[in-house]
User: What shape does this take?
Amino acid sequence: AGVAKLDLALTALLDLAAVALARGERVGLLAFDLQARAYLPPRAGAGQLHAIRDALGRLPQPVEATSWLRATAHLEARQRKRALLVV
Assistant: This one.
């Protein structure tokens, strides 16, 4: 009966990452609910797109409420440089 919203969002995410990587930018990933479920630090290169895709494929089904505060703290502790975040 149609495509799930999550699948549409992941397709857009991977498309955006592919364009940024093709232009030589560094791309990372943070997937979370109550805690960080997947984190890839920003890197350049085609291999990063494969790493993002693989990390997304291994994500468990979310069972806990989303904690934006914890996600922000997780990212703040690891990302020291200026960055564009896409939520």
